[in-house]
Amino acid sequence: MITTSIQKILAITFSVLWLVSCAPQPQMDQIPEIELSAEVEMNGCILEASLKEGLEGEYDAGFYYGSSEEEMIKVSAQWESSALFTASLTSLEYDTEYLYKAYICNGYNEICSDVGHFRTKVLERTMILPFHIKEVGRLSSRFTFEVGGNADFSVTVPDEVDWLRCGTDGRKCIVFVETNDTEDTRDCGIVFKNLSDNLCDTLTVCQQAADASETNLPYNDVVLPPVEVHTWMTLVMDPDISVTPLDGTSAETDWLSCGSVTNIPYGYSEVFFRAEENTAYEDRSARFIVSYDGYDSVITVTQKACDAVIEFEDPYVEIVLVDAFDLDGDGKLSYAEAAPLSIVDAEKIDFSGLDIRAFEELRFFQEFWFLQSPSFAGSDIERISFPYKLSGLGDGLFEYCTELEEIELNCISVGNHTFRGCTGLKNIRAEVSGANSFEGCTALETVEQQFAGVADQAFLNCTSLKSFEFCIKLMTESRIGYEAFRGCRSLPEISIPDVVKTIDDRAFYDCSSLESVFMEGFDPPVLGEDVFAGTSPGLKIYVRPESLAKYQAEWPLMADKIIAIEREDDGADSMILPFHYISLDSWETEFTIEVGGDAEFEVEIVTLSSGPQACRRDGRKCIFTFPENNIYSEFRWAAVFRNLSNGQREVLSICQYGPS
């Protein structure tokens, strides 16, 4: 009986399998017309297939490529839309003709396009200076830059120059400039020689004279309204900042006082102005020298007369604002009317989609400390200046403003997709904390990030990004988000601060030029999936020698790319902090760090919250002692390390949490 049942089951199963095998396989419809294109990048290429009509459903797509049709290699592509897919090729032979064709497959059968071709570029030994004129402050300073290209080169400083010296580290050049105590501006031409063809290029370093000049401030001219004001200008710099009067102006005039405040843990310093009401019918002004970060800069503070009105550059902007805020009905907007307006008033205006070009006058709306409205999305705005107090920009504020090329974002946080699709933006210095904040900014070349982390897809498909630098590292623990740099195909290197504890999935996916990643932390961050997929085949991840084994153990898939690197001595006494941020539990009362390098140094603890603290020295070891935290709050301190040989300062930010 059992045998008969098994036989019946086997017979039924065989019949079903036979019917399935005899059933006709689904065929893919005739593929739409495909247009092929290839963007050659030296020994790499981006292949693109554009369909005349989009496809619906799931399709595998990609390309075949090779030096002949018989030797073609298959590579998968990424769908950009239902009618467009692309693939990035790297490490191709120089000056070589390649054939390629696109394919689409529905899982059962495959259809291919006609064959196209492209030729990679001839390898040339080039030497490219990032700039030819570099202006520096009158105080002693140092700057570093990287020479582009692939040629070997030499660097020569004229023999008669005794105030400047230059060294190299691979393709990096480190330039040291001494203090200028003369009353003359001085310059020096540093000669770079391409050793492959003996052609020379020159970098001219210009140093300011002892008398201050106007340079390097976010705003050199501060315009105050007639009403009584208390205005702040935020800067990013080392802990020290000073403000002194110029041209005999007293430190505190009868109508204006000026000073500075430094917030050490986060690298911010602020210059503030307090002005009394101007009841006169004339403008009044005063000048100050602001010294910071190795620079002396002149700032002019002007307070407008009581009857002054704002002169708008853009007539459309004037129409919108006068209609919303003209209180006295004179058809104009005065400084006095603009000054007290708050962020609530900003919600009354909307510039999205309008043909506006400039809104420099926004900086006179001094109580607009955060902007969610008005919206500029989709407008033709080219220039805008923000109020001094502005600290943040809301979601989507400048989405798809394709005419916007330059914008000053010093110490301003950027929200979600705030500048998405701004294809004209080239350089950014800001707190990029929002997801998709600069997605698709295809002209963006340099970013100075004033935040220790990077949000999800913040720089997705910023294909021209060549330089990314974390300017402020003294923050709490941070992360590099999901696909944060995906598609940044021009980014050659990046340094990741020690406070970054997580690098999420595909953070550097398809960064085909990424060759060097410098990990500053002793402990490896948690690594997501495919973080470095699609990067340069020669990618190297540089870590501290003492951390090599730990990185290789915790990042096993990247172990063959992880190498130890010693910090090069630049000729000056060095001081190296092992980290810049530490988090203590409530019960921890002591920790020790060892300062690297060979310079003599001193340590000062700055109290940012109540509670005793101490630091004792044992050679290069520093032992910090703090009280146990038994309250439901957090304590914050900062330890300032000062290199006695060159005055360099570094800050260790210390946070102790209360009982959980």
What does this protein look like?
The protein has about 650 residues and is mainly beta. Helices cover about 5% and strands about 40% of the residues. It contains 5 helices and 49 strands. The strands form 14 sheets. The protein has a 6-stranded parallel sheet, with no helix packed on it. Strands 3, 4, 7, 8 and 9 form a 5-stranded antiparallel sheet that branches. A hairpin with a 5-residue loop joins strand 17 and strand 18. The radius of gyration is 30 Å and the shape is globular.
For the biggest β-sheet, the strand order reads 27-29-30-31-32-33
- The shape is globular
Biggest β-sheet: count, sense, barrel? 6 strands, parallel
Binned, the helix content reads under 10%
* Uncertain regions spanning at least 5 consecutive residues: 13-26
Number of strands: 49
Distance between the termini: 69 Å
Instruction: Tell me the strand percentage band.
Output: 35-45%
Which structural class matches the secondary elements?
A: mainly beta
Question: How many H/I helices?
Answer: 5
Q: If you compute it from the alpha carbons, what radius of gyration comes out, rounded to the nearest whole angstrom?
A: 30 Å
Mean pLDDT, nearest integer? 81
List keywords for this structure.
660 residues; mainly beta; 49 strands; 7% helix
